[in-house]
Protein backbone atom coordinates (compact mmCIF):
# COMPACT_ATOMS: atom_id res chain seq x y z
CA UNK A 1 0.00 0.00 0.00
CA UNK A 2 1.28 3.43 -0.84
CA UNK A 3 -0.62 5.47 1.66
CA UNK A 4 -0.98 9.02 2.77
CA UNK A 5 -1.13 8.75 6.49
CA UNK A 6 -2.75 11.93 7.72
CA UNK A 7 -4.34 12.60 11.06
CA UNK A 8 -7.93 11.61 11.77
CA UNK A 9 -9.94 14.75 11.08
CA UNK A 10 -11.25 15.08 14.63
CA UNK A 11 -7.88 15.21 16.38
CA UNK A 12 -5.28 17.71 17.41
CA UNK A 13 -2.94 19.88 15.32
CA UNK A 14 -0.19 18.26 13.33
CA UNK A 15 3.17 18.55 15.08
CA UNK A 16 5.43 16.32 13.00
CA UNK A 17 5.04 15.69 9.28
CA UNK A 18 6.97 13.34 7.04
CA UNK A 19 6.29 14.55 3.51
CA UNK A 20 7.24 12.14 0.69
CA UNK A 21 10.34 11.10 2.62
CA UNK A 22 12.72 8.59 1.13
CA UNK A 23 16.04 7.41 2.47
CA UNK A 24 18.87 5.49 0.90
CA UNK A 25 22.21 4.92 2.60
CA UNK A 26 24.00 3.58 -0.46
CA UNK A 27 22.35 5.54 -3.27
CA UNK A 28 20.68 2.38 -4.54
CA UNK A 29 18.22 0.70 -2.19
CA UNK A 30 15.55 2.73 -0.47
CA UNK A 31 15.22 1.70 3.17
CA UNK A 32 12.41 4.25 3.61
CA UNK A 33 10.07 4.44 0.62
CA UNK A 34 7.82 7.43 0.24
CA UNK A 35 6.79 8.06 3.82
CA UNK A 36 3.82 10.39 4.32
CA UNK A 37 2.96 10.58 7.98
CA UNK A 38 1.41 13.22 10.21
CA UNK A 39 1.80 13.03 13.98
CA UNK A 40 -0.45 15.11 16.22
CA UNK A 41 0.58 17.40 19.04
CA UNK A 42 0.55 15.40 22.26
CA UNK A 43 0.12 12.13 20.43
CA UNK A 44 1.88 8.90 21.43
CA UNK A 45 2.71 7.31 18.10
CA UNK A 46 4.55 4.01 17.81
CA UNK A 47 6.49 2.74 14.83
CA UNK A 48 6.22 -1.03 14.98
CA UNK A 49 7.81 -3.49 12.61
CA UNK A 50 10.34 -6.26 12.11
CA UNK A 51 14.06 -5.63 12.32
CA UNK A 52 15.35 -3.78 9.27
CA UNK A 53 12.00 -2.27 8.30
CA UNK A 54 13.30 1.31 8.59
CA UNK A 55 12.01 2.44 12.00
CA UNK A 56 15.30 3.67 13.47
CA UNK A 57 16.14 5.41 10.20
CA UNK A 58 12.88 7.40 10.44
CA UNK A 59 13.67 8.37 14.02
CA UNK A 60 17.24 9.39 13.12
CA UNK A 61 15.98 11.61 10.31
CA UNK A 62 13.51 13.23 12.68
CA UNK A 63 16.24 13.81 15.26
CA UNK A 64 18.47 15.29 12.57
CA UNK A 65 21.22 12.66 12.77
CA UNK A 66 20.44 11.47 9.25
CA UNK A 67 19.15 13.48 6.31
CA UNK A 68 16.35 12.39 4.01
CA UNK A 69 17.43 11.49 0.49
CA UNK A 70 14.16 12.92 -0.80
CA UNK A 71 11.20 14.75 0.71
CA UNK A 72 10.88 16.86 3.78
CA UNK A 73 10.27 16.55 7.50
CA UNK A 74 8.34 19.33 9.21
CA UNK A 75 8.35 20.10 12.91
CA UNK A 76 5.53 22.39 13.96
CA UNK A 77 5.11 23.35 10.27
CA UNK A 78 8.79 24.27 9.81
CA UNK A 79 11.27 22.22 7.74
CA UNK A 80 13.48 20.52 10.31
CA UNK A 81 16.67 21.35 8.41
CA UNK A 82 16.09 25.02 9.16
CA UNK A 83 15.97 24.51 12.92
CA UNK A 84 19.33 24.26 14.71
CA UNK A 85 19.59 21.03 16.75
CA UNK A 86 19.52 22.70 20.18
CA UNK A 87 16.33 24.53 19.21
CA UNK A 88 14.51 21.44 18.03
CA UNK A 89 13.40 20.66 21.57
CA UNK A 90 13.74 16.93 21.00
CA UNK A 91 14.52 14.54 23.86
CA UNK A 92 15.83 11.08 23.07
CA UNK A 93 15.94 7.73 24.83
CA UNK A 94 17.73 4.70 23.41
CA UNK A 95 17.88 1.05 24.34
CA UNK A 96 21.37 1.24 25.83
CA UNK A 97 20.72 4.15 28.20
CA UNK A 98 23.70 6.20 26.89
CA UNK A 99 24.27 7.88 30.25
CA UNK A 100 27.67 9.47 30.78
CA UNK A 101 29.45 6.97 33.04
CA UNK A 102 31.87 9.45 34.63
CA UNK A 103 29.09 11.79 35.74
CA UNK A 104 26.69 11.38 38.63
CA UNK A 105 22.99 11.00 37.93
CA UNK A 106 22.40 14.65 38.78
CA UNK A 107 25.26 15.77 36.52
CA UNK A 108 23.86 13.63 33.71
CA UNK A 109 20.54 15.41 34.05
CA UNK A 110 22.10 18.81 34.43
CA UNK A 111 24.09 18.47 31.22
CA UNK A 112 21.29 19.15 28.68
CA UNK A 113 20.36 22.20 30.76
CA UNK A 114 23.92 23.56 30.77
CA UNK A 115 24.02 23.15 27.00
CA UNK A 116 20.92 25.33 26.91
CA UNK A 117 22.57 27.92 29.14
CA UNK A 118 20.17 27.59 32.04
CA UNK A 119 21.38 29.07 35.36
CA UNK A 120 22.55 26.96 38.30
CA UNK A 121 19.62 27.32 40.68
CA UNK A 122 17.07 26.73 37.95
CA UNK A 123 19.10 23.72 36.80
CA UNK A 124 19.07 22.23 40.28
CA UNK A 125 15.33 22.70 40.61
CA UNK A 126 14.64 21.13 37.22
CA UNK A 127 16.95 18.17 37.90
CA UNK A 128 15.20 17.50 41.20
CA UNK A 129 11.80 17.70 39.59
CA UNK A 130 12.78 15.34 36.76
CA UNK A 131 14.24 12.81 39.20
CA UNK A 132 11.10 12.90 41.31
CA UNK A 133 9.04 12.36 38.18
CA UNK A 134 10.70 8.97 37.65
CA UNK A 135 10.79 8.19 41.38
CA UNK A 136 14.57 8.48 41.58
CA UNK A 137 14.80 11.54 43.82
CA UNK A 138 17.31 9.93 46.21
CA UNK A 139 19.75 8.80 43.54
CA UNK A 140 21.21 12.09 42.30
CA UNK A 141 24.63 11.41 43.80
CA UNK A 142 25.15 7.95 42.33
CA UNK A 143 27.01 7.03 39.17
CA UNK A 144 25.23 5.03 36.43
CA UNK A 145 27.29 1.91 37.24
CA UNK A 146 25.78 1.92 40.74
CA UNK A 147 22.25 1.57 39.36
CA UNK A 148 20.24 -1.39 38.04
CA UNK A 149 19.21 -1.52 34.38
CA UNK A 150 15.70 -0.37 35.17
CA UNK A 151 16.99 2.52 37.29
CA UNK A 152 19.40 3.58 34.54
CA UNK A 153 16.57 3.59 32.05
CA UNK A 154 14.48 5.74 34.40
CA UNK A 155 17.40 8.19 34.55
CA UNK A 156 17.71 8.17 30.77
CA UNK A 157 14.03 9.01 30.60
CA UNK A 158 14.42 11.81 33.15
CA UNK A 159 17.35 13.20 31.17
CA UNK A 160 15.25 13.24 28.01
CA UNK A 161 12.48 15.10 29.82
CA UNK A 162 14.48 17.48 32.02
CA UNK A 163 14.61 20.33 29.50
CA UNK A 164 10.89 20.01 28.90
CA UNK A 165 11.02 18.99 25.26
CA UNK A 166 7.89 19.11 23.16
CA UNK A 167 8.89 15.96 21.34
CA UNK A 168 10.52 12.82 22.72
CA UNK A 169 11.90 10.05 20.53
CA UNK A 170 12.37 6.62 22.02
CA UNK A 171 14.06 3.75 20.21
CA UNK A 172 13.39 0.38 21.85
CA UNK A 173 14.00 1.97 25.26
CA UNK A 174 12.85 -1.06 27.21
CA UNK A 175 14.40 -3.74 25.02
CA UNK A 176 17.14 -4.65 27.48
CA UNK A 177 14.90 -5.00 30.53
CA UNK A 178 13.11 -8.04 31.92
CA UNK A 179 9.41 -8.51 31.36
CA UNK A 180 8.07 -7.25 34.67
CA UNK A 181 10.18 -4.11 34.68
CA UNK A 182 9.29 -3.50 31.05
CA UNK A 183 5.59 -3.61 31.86
CA UNK A 184 5.99 -1.24 34.80
CA UNK A 185 7.94 1.26 32.72
CA UNK A 186 5.55 0.96 29.77
CA UNK A 187 2.80 2.13 32.08
CA UNK A 188 4.93 4.88 33.64
CA UNK A 189 6.12 6.27 30.31
CA UNK A 190 2.64 6.55 28.83
CA UNK A 191 1.25 8.09 32.00
CA UNK A 192 4.07 10.63 32.15
CA UNK A 193 3.84 11.50 28.45
CA UNK A 194 0.13 12.16 28.66
CA UNK A 195 0.43 14.11 31.89
CA UNK A 196 3.13 16.37 30.42
CA UNK A 197 1.35 16.61 27.07
CA UNK A 198 4.49 15.79 25.11
CA UNK A 199 4.47 14.23 21.68
CA UNK A 200 6.19 10.85 21.65
CA UNK A 201 7.48 8.87 18.70
CA UNK A 202 8.25 5.43 20.05
CA UNK A 203 9.97 2.60 18.20
CA UNK A 204 9.56 -1.06 19.07
CA UNK A 205 9.38 -4.47 17.45
CA UNK A 206 7.21 -5.71 20.33
CA UNK A 207 3.58 -5.69 19.28
CA UNK A 208 2.17 -5.99 22.80
CA UNK A 209 4.17 -2.96 23.84
CA UNK A 210 2.89 -1.04 20.82
CA UNK A 211 -0.73 -1.96 21.46
CA UNK A 212 -0.69 -1.16 25.17
CA UNK A 213 1.17 2.16 25.01
CA UNK A 214 0.11 3.99 21.88
CA UNK A 215 -2.61 6.32 20.67
CA UNK A 216 -1.79 5.11 17.16
CA UNK A 217 0.55 2.51 15.75
CA UNK A 218 2.27 2.67 12.36
CA UNK A 219 3.11 -0.85 11.22
CA UNK A 220 6.28 -0.82 9.12
CA UNK A 221 7.48 -3.42 6.70
CA UNK A 222 10.16 -3.06 4.10
CA UNK A 223 10.41 0.72 4.38
CA UNK A 224 6.68 1.35 4.11
CA UNK A 225 3.81 1.90 6.49
CA UNK A 226 1.47 -1.04 6.01
CA UNK A 227 -1.23 0.35 8.26
CA UNK A 228 -1.62 3.23 10.68
CA UNK A 229 -4.43 3.00 13.21
CA UNK A 230 -5.44 2.99 16.83
CA UNK A 231 -4.49 -0.29 18.55
CA UNK A 232 -8.00 -1.75 18.58
CA UNK A 233 -8.60 -0.98 14.91
CA UNK A 234 -5.23 -2.44 13.98
CA UNK A 235 -5.94 -5.65 15.83
CA UNK A 236 -9.57 -6.06 14.84
CA UNK A 237 -9.45 -4.68 11.30
CA UNK A 238 -6.09 -5.52 9.74
CA UNK A 239 -5.97 -4.22 6.18
CA UNK A 240 -3.63 -6.85 4.78
CA UNK A 241 -2.12 -10.25 5.54
CA UNK A 242 1.16 -8.84 6.80
CA UNK A 243 -0.56 -6.77 9.48
CA UNK A 244 -2.92 -9.61 10.41
CA UNK A 245 0.06 -11.93 10.96
CA UNK A 246 2.33 -9.40 12.63
CA UNK A 247 -0.17 -8.08 15.17
CA UNK A 248 -1.42 -10.62 17.67
CA UNK A 249 -2.16 -14.24 17.06
CA UNK A 250 -3.97 -15.01 13.84
CA UNK A 251 -5.49 -17.99 12.06
CA UNK A 252 -5.09 -18.13 8.32
CA UNK A 253 -7.04 -20.27 5.88
CA UNK A 254 -6.41 -20.16 2.14
CA UNK A 255 -8.88 -20.33 -0.72
CA UNK A 256 -10.60 -18.49 -3.55
CA UNK A 257 -13.48 -16.04 -3.57
CA UNK A 258 -16.59 -17.94 -4.69
CA UNK A 259 -19.24 -15.26 -4.27
CA UNK A 260 -18.91 -11.51 -3.97
CA UNK A 261 -21.55 -9.32 -2.35
CA UNK A 262 -21.45 -5.71 -1.21
CA UNK A 263 -20.06 -6.22 2.28
CA UNK A 264 -19.76 -9.99 2.46
CA UNK A 265 -18.16 -12.70 0.39
CA UNK A 266 -18.09 -16.47 0.35
CA UNK A 267 -14.69 -18.14 0.15
CA UNK A 268 -14.15 -21.67 -1.10
CA UNK A 269 -11.27 -23.02 0.96
CA UNK A 270 -8.65 -25.16 -0.73
CA UNK A 271 -10.31 -28.33 0.58
CA UNK A 272 -13.65 -27.30 -0.98
CA UNK A 273 -15.51 -26.07 2.11
CA UNK A 274 -17.29 -22.70 2.13
CA UNK A 275 -16.98 -19.90 4.67
CA UNK A 276 -18.28 -16.35 5.00
CA UNK A 277 -15.92 -13.40 5.26
CA UNK A 278 -15.66 -9.64 4.94
CA UNK A 279 -13.99 -8.79 1.62
CA UNK A 280 -11.10 -6.52 2.62
CA UNK A 281 -8.36 -7.09 0.13
CA UNK A 282 -10.12 -9.05 -2.60
CA UNK A 283 -12.07 -7.64 -5.50
CA UNK A 284 -13.59 -10.38 -7.64
CA UNK A 285 -14.79 -13.96 -7.77
CA UNK A 286 -11.80 -16.23 -8.39
CA UNK A 287 -9.28 -14.09 -6.43
CA UNK A 288 -6.87 -15.99 -4.23
CA UNK A 289 -7.24 -15.02 -0.58
CA UNK A 290 -5.96 -15.67 2.89
CA UNK A 291 -8.78 -15.33 5.34
CA UNK A 292 -7.90 -14.15 8.81
CA UNK A 293 -9.72 -14.99 12.03
CA UNK A 294 -8.56 -14.26 15.58
CA UNK A 295 -8.33 -17.21 18.00
CA UNK A 296 -10.74 -15.65 20.50
CA UNK A 297 -13.42 -15.02 17.85
CA UNK A 298 -13.88 -18.65 16.87
CA UNK A 299 -17.16 -20.08 18.11
CA UNK A 300 -17.36 -23.74 19.17
CA UNK A 301 -20.98 -23.49 20.25
CA UNK A 302 -23.27 -23.60 17.22
CA UNK A 303 -26.18 -22.08 19.16
CA UNK A 304 -24.34 -18.77 19.25
CA UNK A 305 -24.12 -18.57 15.43
CA UNK A 306 -26.68 -17.50 12.87
CA UNK A 307 -28.80 -20.45 11.69
CA UNK A 308 -27.47 -20.17 8.13
CA UNK A 309 -23.80 -19.60 9.13
CA UNK A 310 -21.26 -21.80 7.38
CA UNK A 311 -19.41 -24.04 9.81
CA UNK A 312 -16.30 -26.17 9.46
CA UNK A 313 -15.41 -29.57 10.79
CA UNK A 314 -12.40 -29.63 13.06
CA UNK A 315 -10.31 -32.21 14.90
CA UNK A 316 -8.76 -31.41 18.26
CA UNK A 317 -4.98 -31.90 18.11
CA UNK A 318 -4.00 -30.35 21.41
CA UNK A 319 -5.73 -28.84 24.44
CA UNK A 320 -3.71 -26.62 26.75
CA UNK A 321 -4.98 -25.42 30.10
CA UNK A 322 -3.50 -21.97 30.72
CA UNK A 323 -5.36 -20.89 33.86
CA UNK A 324 -7.33 -17.93 32.60
CA UNK A 325 -7.92 -19.41 29.16
CA UNK A 326 -7.95 -22.70 27.30
CA UNK A 327 -5.90 -22.90 24.17
CA UNK A 328 -7.04 -25.52 21.70
CA UNK A 329 -5.14 -26.40 18.55
CA UNK A 330 -7.25 -27.83 15.75
CA UNK A 331 -6.92 -29.34 12.32
CA UNK A 332 -9.21 -27.25 10.11
CA UNK A 333 -9.51 -27.45 6.32
CA UNK A 334 -6.10 -29.09 6.07
CA UNK A 335 -4.38 -26.54 8.36
CA UNK A 336 -2.91 -27.97 11.56
CA UNK A 337 -2.13 -24.76 13.40
CA UNK A 338 -5.62 -23.41 13.83
CA UNK A 339 -5.83 -22.06 17.38
CA UNK A 340 -8.90 -21.28 19.43
CA UNK A 341 -8.78 -19.44 22.74
CA UNK A 342 -11.67 -19.76 25.14
CA UNK A 343 -12.26 -18.29 28.57
CA UNK A 344 -11.90 -20.68 31.44
CA UNK A 345 -15.57 -20.75 32.38
CA UNK A 346 -18.04 -23.46 33.45
CA UNK A 347 -19.85 -23.37 30.11
CA UNK A 348 -16.71 -23.97 28.06
CA UNK A 349 -15.81 -27.59 27.31
CA UNK A 350 -12.36 -29.00 28.06
CA UNK A 351 -11.65 -30.88 24.87
CA UNK A 352 -9.48 -33.94 24.31
CA UNK A 353 -7.14 -34.68 21.42
CA UNK A 354 -8.94 -36.72 18.77
CA UNK A 355 -12.37 -35.19 19.45
CA UNK A 356 -14.24 -33.99 16.40
CA UNK A 357 -16.13 -30.73 16.67
CA UNK A 358 -17.72 -28.07 14.53
CA UNK A 359 -16.55 -24.46 14.54
CA UNK A 360 -17.81 -21.23 13.06
CA UNK A 361 -17.74 -17.49 13.56
CA UNK A 362 -19.65 -14.33 12.99
CA UNK A 363 -18.81 -13.38 9.40
CA UNK A 364 -17.72 -9.86 10.38
CA UNK A 365 -14.88 -11.39 12.44
CA UNK A 366 -13.42 -13.15 9.41
CA UNK A 367 -11.51 -11.06 6.88
CA UNK A 368 -10.63 -11.99 3.32
CA UNK A 369 -7.14 -10.53 2.77
CA UNK A 370 -4.48 -10.64 0.07
CA UNK A 371 -2.83 -13.99 -0.69
N1 LIG B 1 24.05 3.74 8.90
C1 LIG B 1 23.61 2.85 8.01
N2 LIG B 1 24.29 2.61 6.87
C2 LIG B 1 23.84 1.72 5.95
N3 LIG B 1 22.71 1.03 6.06
C3 LIG B 1 21.98 1.21 7.17
C4 LIG B 1 22.38 2.13 8.20
N4 LIG B 1 21.45 2.10 9.19
C5 LIG B 1 20.52 1.22 8.79
N5 LIG B 1 20.82 0.68 7.59
C6 LIG B 1 19.99 -0.30 6.85
O1 LIG B 1 18.72 0.28 6.63
C7 LIG B 1 17.69 -0.68 6.79
C8 LIG B 1 16.71 -0.19 7.86
O2 LIG B 1 17.39 -0.17 9.09
P1 LIG B 1 16.77 0.43 10.42
O3 LIG B 1 16.19 1.75 10.12
O4 LIG B 1 17.82 0.35 11.47
O5 LIG B 1 15.59 -0.61 10.71
P2 LIG B 1 14.84 -0.98 12.08
O6 LIG B 1 15.10 0.09 13.08
O7 LIG B 1 13.41 -1.09 11.66
O8 LIG B 1 15.39 -2.30 12.50
C9 LIG B 1 18.36 -2.00 7.15
O9 LIG B 1 18.47 -2.74 5.97
C10 LIG B 1 19.71 -1.55 7.65
O10 LIG B 1 20.67 -2.55 7.42
MG1 LIG C 1 15.99 -0.09 14.99
TrEMBL record:
Top-tier EC class: translocase
EC annotation from Swiss-Prot or TrEMBL: 7.6.2.11
GO molecular function: ABC-type polyamine transporter activity; ATP binding; ATP hydrolysis activity
Xref: InterPro entries: AAA+_ATPase, ABC_SmlMolc_Importer, ABC_transporter-like_ATP-bd, ABC_transporter-like_CS, Mo/tungstate-bd_C_term_dom, P-loop_NTPase, PotA-like, Transp-assoc_OB_typ2
Record-linked Pfam families: ABC_tran, TOBE_2
Protein name: Spermidine/putrescine import ATP-binding protein PotA
GO CC term, one of those recorded: ATP-binding cassette (ABC) transporter complex
ABC transporter domain: residues covered: 16-247
Subunit structure: The complex is composed of two ATP-binding proteins (PotA), two transmembrane proteins (PotB and PotC) and a solute-binding protein (PotD).
Gene name as annotated: potA
Function: Part of the ABC transporter complex PotABCD involved in spermidine/putrescine import. Responsible for energy coupling to the transport system.
Record bears the keyword RNA-binding: no
Family membership: Belongs to the ABC transporter superfamily. Spermidine/putrescine importer (TC 3.A.1.11.1) family.
Key words, A-Z: ATP-binding, Cell membrane, Membrane, Nucleotide-binding, Translocase, Transport
Catalytic activities: ATP + H2O + polyamine-[polyamine-binding protein]Side 1 = ADP + phosphate + polyamineSide 2 + [polyamine-binding protein]Side 1
Amino acid sequence: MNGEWGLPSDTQDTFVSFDRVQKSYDGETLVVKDLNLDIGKGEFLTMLGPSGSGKTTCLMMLAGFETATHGEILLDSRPINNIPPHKRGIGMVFQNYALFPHMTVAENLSFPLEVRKIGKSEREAKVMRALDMVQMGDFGGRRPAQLSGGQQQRIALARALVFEPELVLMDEPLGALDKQLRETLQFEITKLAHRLGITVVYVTHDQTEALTMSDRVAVFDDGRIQQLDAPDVLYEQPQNSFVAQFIGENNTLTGRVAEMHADMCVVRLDDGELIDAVPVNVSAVGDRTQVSIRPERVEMNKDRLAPDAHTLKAEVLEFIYMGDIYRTRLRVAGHENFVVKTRNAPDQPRLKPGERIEIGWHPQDCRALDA
